[in-house]
Design brief:
Elements (H helix, E strand, L loop, with lengths): L5 H13 L3 H13 L2 E2 H8 L3 H13 L3 E6 L2 E6 L3 H30 L6 H5 L1
Antiparallel strand pairs: 1-3, 2-3
């Protein structure tokens, strides 16, 4: 049985699944920094074939994260909501703090672990 909040979680999970691609995250950040761009320029920036870039943009567009804006014969893609970059940056900060904690744990462990003098002795 679905609870009232489930709909929002389902929608959020769908969007997170769409941006769970390193290349799509990078596209989001680039569009947030530079503003609207054509597929050709995105393909050049990422050194990827245009059809591949178009597939990524189609997924982002389907999720409602980017939109195509036509100016004459030119089509540019832009973020629908600039706060998307802020949300991604927030997650990046969470990851940086997590990596720092893991680094602190690794450093604490390595300073406490005995260091064997003989590699053969370490295997015993």
């Amino acid at each position: 049985m679905l609870r009232p909040a489930d709909g929002m979680y389902i929608l959020q999970a769908s969007i997170l699944k769409t941006i769970a691609s390193p290349r799509r995250l990078e596209m989001i950040h680039l569009l947030g920094e530079t503003g609207p761009m054509e597929v050709r320029r995105l393909a050049e920036h990422f050194d990827m074939p245009q059809p591949t870039v178009s597939q990524h943009l189609a997924a982002l567009r389907s999720a409602g994260l980017v939109e195509a804006v036509r100016t004459g014969r030119e089509v540019r893609y832009q973020l629908v909501d600039p706060d998307l970059v802020a949300a991604c940056d927030l997650m990046r900060q969470v990851l940086i703090r997590r990596m720092a904690r893991m680094g602190d744990m690794a450093a604490a462990y390595s300073s406490q672990a005995p260091t064997p003098r003989d590699p053969v002795e370490a295997l015993r």
